[in-house]
Design a protein that fits this description.
With 471 residues, the chain is of the alpha/beta class. It is built from 21 helices and eight strands. The strands form two sheets. A five-stranded parallel beta sheet has the order 5-6-7-4-8, with helices on both faces. Strand 6, helix 10 (243-258) and strand 7 form a beta-alpha-beta unit. It is globular, with a radius of gyration of 24 Å. Bound molecules: adenosine-5'-diphosphate and magnesium ion. Adenosine-5'-diphosphate is lined by residues 137-139, 144, 169, 171-177, 304, 307, 332-333, 336.
């Protein structure tokens, strides 16, 4: 039988044309211009990218977008695969192909190497931890000394000194990194301990599912048998509607506390300020150590950048580092986003990043600084236009999917671009409670990590809004 051959290059081209129209020129050049069609399989398209870094970034940001375009255009599902080949290797491969067989261009795709899960990866998946978050990669400074030292002590001797421990601080200041580092380091030192990391949101969802499926015994067993329980973002529980989850958590807490098991929580504010929590649960969180993470000083920001550069095997000159640290002061996540952007750009154009390039590239860096004088009306108008609905839909009471996400996005952008408090934003958005606004922002943040098509959407909205300003 003749072997079937496929050629989906036409779909690829067409999908790229569509995507190009939707993105800004800068974004297109950065992420798409260096990706080339390579070959087609039965239900896949393989594209050539210049590095694993590039592949990971494209996967994270655009995989869903590309695959959905391909499906739209071709009428069936085509998955995207990556073939990593540096530019100069492409040229070498072409030369070798001319002169003889054994062309290095036939090297197997990179993914085959990384597909065998090791024992540690299995453990990690079970525990919920990401191995990249460890103490070695965490910069200590006067903004976080107590929190980091307590965390190290906890990982060394869980269940003894600081129990429970609550780490609190604003968005992007390193809470998740730190609480996960406790888990990873504790696992290294005490491989027999059962460590469970979970976000408050996942805890809540698992609990609700357990009730629906009559499996609460499995849920209880998972959490009450932990030697170290790490719960991230407990402000998520602070919502009058989550009473039964709070109740369950209260009992989990007591069971673990009585058994001297270690518990660590993170929160966006001190426990005592969690007004919507039942008194007894709030007092449990306030017990033990409460340690805060403050925004890092200029020097610490620079130290963090250098650490991240090292980790990514990249180099930036001191004046560029200086520039990034002085323009991005709000939080470490934004700092890192700026860095990634520059590294990607430099890989792409194969040039060192100069101060001018950095300025140009970071010009509209996502949410770096609050823009002056942007009115909520401008935001409402832009979001309503974008999603083709009316401003009163966005402010209104309807709760169907089609309006909820735009509403949440509008709240998120307001929080990012203005100085209004969550209470003020709630009032402007149809008299909603401040916890609704907080929840909306958290939802959007978590979508941003799971849905790569959202970030370009929000970025383009922010550009439109900034260009319109107040009024
Ligand atoms: P949070 O959970 O508080 O919102 P994250 O833990 O997700 O913040 O941190 C955001 C990013 O900043 C992560 O990539 C993290 O590694 C990095 N980061 C924050 N603080 C530090 C630090 N002190 N040293 C190194 N990296 C940091
Ligand atoms: Mg976090």
């Amino acid at each position: 039988m003749k072997e079937e051959t496929w050629d989906y290059s036409i779909f690829w081209k067409e999908a790229m044309n569509h995507i190009r129209e939707e993105l800004s020129e800068q974004e297109w050049i950065m992420w798409f211009s260096n990706m080339e069609y390579h070959k087609s399989g039965g239900s896949s398209i393989t594209v050539r990218v210049p590095s694993t870094f590039y592949r990971d970034q494209v996967q994270q940001r655009y995989l869903k977008l590309i695959e959905s375009k391909l499906a739209e255009i071709s009428g069936h599902k085509l998955s995207l695969e990556f073939f990593i080949q540096k530019k100069d290797e492409t040229e070498k491969a072409a030369d070798a192909a001319k002169t003889g067989p054994n062309s290095p261009g036939q090297a197997p795709p990179d993914r085959e190497k990384s597909e065998r899960p090791d024992k540690d990866a299995v453990w990690r998946q079970k525990s919920g931890l990401n191995g990249a978050y460890n103490f070695d990669q965490y910069v200590i400074g006067e903004n976080n000394t107590l929190a980091v030292n307590a965390s190290i002590a906890i990982a060394n001797n869980p269940g003894s000194a600081y129990n429970p421990c609550l780490i609190y601080g604003g968005v992007g200041l390193g809470k998740t990194h730190l609480i996960q580092a406790i888990g990873n380091s504790a696992h290294e030192k005490h491989p027999d301990l059962k460590i469970v990391y979970v976000t408050a949101e996942t805890f809540t969802n698992e609990f609700i599912n357990a009730i629906q499926n009559k499996k609460t015994h499995i849920f209880k067993n998972k959490y009450r048998s932990a030697d170290i329980l790490l719960i991230d973002d407990i402000h998520f529980f602070a919502d009058g509607k989550k009473e039964s989850t709070q109740e369950e958590l209260f009992h989990t807490f007591n069971a673990l506390y009585d058994a001297n098991k270690q518990m660590v929580f993170t929160c966006d504010r001190p426990a005592l300020e969690l007004k919507e929590l039942t008194d007894r649960l709030r007092s449990r969180f306030a017990r033990g150590l409460n340690a805060d993470l403050q925004p890092p000083s200029f020097e610490i920001r620079a130290a963090i950048l250098k650490k991240k550069l090292q980790q990514k095997n990249a180099v930036l000159s001191d004046d560029v580092i200086h520039f990034i640290c002085s323009s991005i002061t709000s939080n470490v996540r934004d700092l890192e986003a700026a860095l990634l952007r520059l590294i990607a750009y430099s890989e792409l154009v194969k040039k060192e990043i100069t101060l001018d390039i950095a300025r140009e590239q970071l010009k509209d860096n996502f949410s770096s600084q609050k823009a002056a004088n942007i009115s909520i009306n401008t935001i409402l108008r832009a979001v309503a236009d974008y999603f083709n609905m009316s401003q009163s839909d966005i402010k209104g009471k309807r709760r169907n999917k089609a309006v909820v996400l735009p509403r949440q996005i509008a709240m998120y952008i307001t929080r990012e671009l203005t100085e209004f408090s969550t209470t003020e934003i709630g009032l402007e958005f149809g008299g909603r409670d401040h916890t609704t606004v907080m929840h909306a922002c958290q939802r959007v943040e978590s979508y941003l990590t799971t849905n790569p098509t959202l970030e370009p959407t929000i970025r383009s909205l922010i550009r439109t809004i900034k260009s319109q300003g107040g009024g």
